[in-house]
Amino acid sequence: MLSNAKWRASRLESLNASAEVVETSAGPIEMVKSGSAPFVLHLHGTPGGFDQSVNFGEGFVEAGMGSIAISRPGYLRTPISVGRTAEQQADAIAALLDALALEQVAAHGVSGGAPAAIHFAARHPDRITALLLTCAVSVAYPIHIPGWSKILMTPVGMRIGEWALAKFPRASIKQSLAELSTYSKQQLEVATREVLSDPQRLQVMQDLVRSTTPWEDRRDGFAADMETIAGLEENPLPLESIKCPTLIVHGSADDDVPYSVGVEAQKRIAGSRLHTMEGAHHVLWLDDGIDEVIRMQVEFVRESA
What we know:
Layout: H1 4-17, E1 20-24, E2 27-34, E3 39-43, H2 50-62, E4 66-70, H3 86-99, E5 105-110, H4 114-123, E6 128-134, H5 149-152, H6 155-167, H7 169-180, H8 185-197, H9 199-210, H10 219-230, E7 246-251, H11 259-268, E8 273-277, H12 290-304
Helix pairs in contact: 3-4, 6-7, 7-8, 8-9
C-alpha cells in the first residue's frame, strides 16, 4: 500500500486534472462545467467536492441541459476563505456566475449543500430560475454522529473506509445503510443485497466514499458545514423568502436528514412541491425511483427556465 503522502498526491493529481479553478471576486472556485443552457448548478453534500456533484449532474446533461459541479468552500481547491457561512457561499455562487457570464441558473442543493442553495435563492432571486432540494438540510434537527465514526474522520481513517469498501463490501455497505436509513434488520439485508448485485448502485456507493478523500483536502469544508447545521436553531434558513419554483425530494426512510425536515421545508417555502420517495434512505441514487426523480427534476427546471 502506498504511503499516505504518495497516495494523496496521486489522488489529487487525478482530481485536479478533472476540473478547473475559476477566479471570481469571492476567490478561486473549483468546478466542472458541461452541457449547454439551461444550466443547473449542483451543491454537493457533507463531505464532498465537485467529484460528488458531477454525478448529480449526469442526468441533466444526458437530457440536453447543462451542469455546473463545484467544490464548495473548504473542499479540494476551493479555499474556505471563499465562504465559511452559507450566506457567504451563496454570494460566492453569484460571483461565479459573473465570472462565467451567466445571468441565471437553477440551483440544486443536496444534503449539506442545501443551506448555500437556499441562501442563494433568497439573496439573489434574479439569478435563480428554480431550486431543487434533495435529501436537503433545510431546518434544524438533532444531529447524531456515532462516537466511533470520529475515529474515521482522519486522513488515514477515511482512506481505510475506502479500502474496506473494496475488500469487505457487504459489511461496509450494510454498516453505511444502517447509518443512512431507518431500516429494520431484514430491510438492511435486502438493501445490501440490492447494492451488491447491481453494478450501477455499487458504483454509486464507491463514488460516494471516494468523494470523502483525501480527507485533508475536505475537512475544512466539513467543519464549516457542521457549524452551519448545528446553528440552524438560532440562525434558521430564510425559507419563507424563497420566491422561485422549488421542488423538494426526500426519502421517507432517511435517518441522516429525517423526512420530517423535507416536510417542514415544503410548508415554509411558498408554492413548493414535495416528492416523497417511499422507503428511500439518504442516498436516493441507490433507490429504484431515482430515474423517475431525475426526469421530474429535468422537466421542472425546463418549465421554470
